Structures are given as C-alpha cells and as structure tokens.
Amino acid sequence: KQINKEMGLTIVVITHEMSVIEEICQRIAIIDESRIVEMGNVIDIFTNPKTQIAKSFASPGGDRPDRVMGNRLVQITFDGNSSFEPVLAKTILECKAPVNIMFADTKNIDGKAFGQMIIQLPEDEILSNRVLAYLRTQDIIVKEVEESV
Q1: Fewer CB within 10 Å of terminal CB in the chain, N or C?
Q2: Does the residue 8 lie in any domain?
Q3: What total number of domains does the chain contain?
C-alpha cells in the first residue's frame, strides 16, 4: 500500500493466501476456472461476496461448522463499523447476562474488524430480550438464527 501511495504504482499479486490479500491489497479479482468471476474492493468482496467461490474463501465465517446447536442463537456480523470495540464484553456487563460463544471468526482488514460470531442467549426470556435490545444499539448487524446456521 505504501509503494502504491508514494510512487503511484499498481502491483498485481496472485495468491491463495487470504491473509496476504487482507494485509496489502485494496482491490481483488476472484478467478475460477481461468475466468474472473468477481472483482472489486477487498472490503466489499470479503463482506458481501456474490459468487460461491468468493464465499468459500474470502468471506469471514468460511470455516463455520455446518450446524450450530442451541436455543436463542444470534448471529452478530462485524462489518468494519464497530472497529475493535469489545462489543460482547460490554453487552455482558451492561445487561448482566451471560452469553455463550458458539462460533467466532473475525478478520482485521485495513485496520477494521470484519467477521461473524454466533452466540447463544440466556434461557431467561427477559435477559435474552435485554441482550438483543442492547446489541441492536451497537454498530453491528444482529440477526436471530435457527438452530442450524
């Protein structure tokens, strides 16, 4: 990024290492069977991939288990707006309610947090509703999900 900024040079990198892409690239082209199937800003592709191939390796949560068991599951999506705020810790302290982390996958792209987390809310409905209400006031995407995610 520094070379691009200081010298105005564009460098083409071909790699399967997403950590390299996250660290040094601003734009990405996804190639499948010798064809460009998706192209755009790294953040856009990582947070909203359009093709299955892009979803399989560029999207946070690609290693998510096929099935997450439990009641009152909530998927939290970090889309870069929340920075690196301790959202879950603040939620637990503010709501005085325990949550169980069932799955988490976040990435640092360009100094911002991107990824997903699936949490299980408390069985107590009042506490669960309090946690949901609080999460929805934060700068994240919150979605209640079924047992199988």
Answers
A1: N
A2: yes
A3: 2
Residues 47, 130, 96, 124: what is their CA dihedral angle, to the nearest 10 degrees?
Answer: -110
Q: How far apart are CA 114 and CA 112, in angstroms?
A: 7
On whether residue 65 sits in a domain, the answer given is no
Residue with tokens 């929340």: 82
Q: For residue 117, what is the domain's CATH number?
A: 3.30.70.260
Rama region for 20: left / alpha / beta (φ>0; ψ in -120 to 50; rest) = alpha
**pTM of whole model > 0.85?**
no
Type of residue numbered 101: I
> To 5 degrees, how large is the angle CA 49–CA 50–CA 51?
100
> Tell me, what DSSP letter sits at residue 83?
T
Q: Which residue has the tokens 């299955």?
A: 52
- Summarised one tens digit per residue, pLDDT across range 86-130 is 899 999 999 999 999 998 888 877 778 888 899 999 999 999 999
